[in-house]
Amino acid sequence: MKNNYFEIIRAGVNTTFQDKGRSNLYHIGIPFSGAMDNRNYLLANRLASNKLDLSVIEFAYQGPLLKYNGEKINIAITGDIIFKLRKKDNEIEGNCYESFQIEDGDEIDILSTNKSVYGYLAIGGEFDLKLQWGSSSINTKANIGSNDGKKLENNQKIYISKINLNQEKKKTNYLNSKVENIRVIRGTNFDYFSEEGKKIIFEKEFTVSKLSDRMGMRLEGPKIENIVNTNIKSEGLLKGVIQVTADGNPIIMLSDHGTIGGYPKIGVVASVDYDRLVQISPGSKIKFKEIELSDAETLFKLYEMETQNLISQI
Predict the structure, then answer these.
(1) Which of 208, 229, 282, 306 has its CA 20 to 30 A from that of 165?
(2) At a CB cut-off of 8 Å and minimum separation 6, what does 200 contact?
(3) Among residues 258, 223, 220, 224, which one has the least CA distance to residue 239?
(4) Nearest CA-CA partner of 7 in 112, 106, 86
(5) pLDDT tens for each residue of 232-263
(6) 182-311: CATH class
(7) How many CB atoms within 10 Å of residue 149?
(8) What is the residue extent of each domain of the chain?
(9) Could you tell me the pTM of the whole model?
(10) Which residues does 58 contact at the CB level (< 8 Å), separation at least 6?
């Protein structure tokens, strides 16, 4: 299959390989990483007739322009994405949540995400990637994962080790929903903050900063007053934790977050809202709503059931 590959004409803004991530490595400072939007990652693989844990190409804002060389293969793109397929003299407007067959010489031009951040490209087969700790997921801050832990680059070739025999066309009608409020449970340092600070986190709007990335989402807005200590002994972190820095601004830990940190934790984003949280683009407004842990657990179970139903219907 070495004769089947993509040539990267334009790499895009933040294009990496991702899969389900790597687990049980927090003790050596390695976070999960993996696809930011797990539901869209799973749907991309399903539409391409893959096993659900295979590697995909994740991109942000502007995606890659790829030229394909090789045998016929299916591809699928998920997210809120504007893209085109160029086949010989024809240019086709691409539709998300639908598989397409491409052949030698065709191009995939992923122009932009549409009022969102992340999108996913799956192929009907397997990329030829070197795994690290059982995962291809790239963490560019730590230079771990496939592709030497680095973003994809112009003129690079992406080789394919396997092409699926099943190239049946698949499609699903899926709409990426927005959330009015991101649901949050109280963090372990909730009582470090003044009564006014506690009101602010759940009543005021914040703006997503342009400094956000796969490691964390920085927010700007009214300052949250800490009345105990703006720095604490470093403790373990997890995805979705909301820390408040010394200047009173919140920062949400995302998939490539550091595994320990010394800023007080005012809350944790409920897992049910994480996929939609990461798709909120810089400059957008965000509000939080407090819920109880038991409600967060129930909501996440329902969200996972809904995801599995979507997959099973494809």
Answers:
(1) 306
(2) 221, 222, 223, 224
(3) 258
(4) 106
(5) 999 999 999 999 999 999 999 999 999 999 99
(6) mainly beta
(7) 16
(8) 5-163, 182-311
(9) 0.96
(10) 15, 16, 17, 18, 35, 36, 41, 118, 119, 120
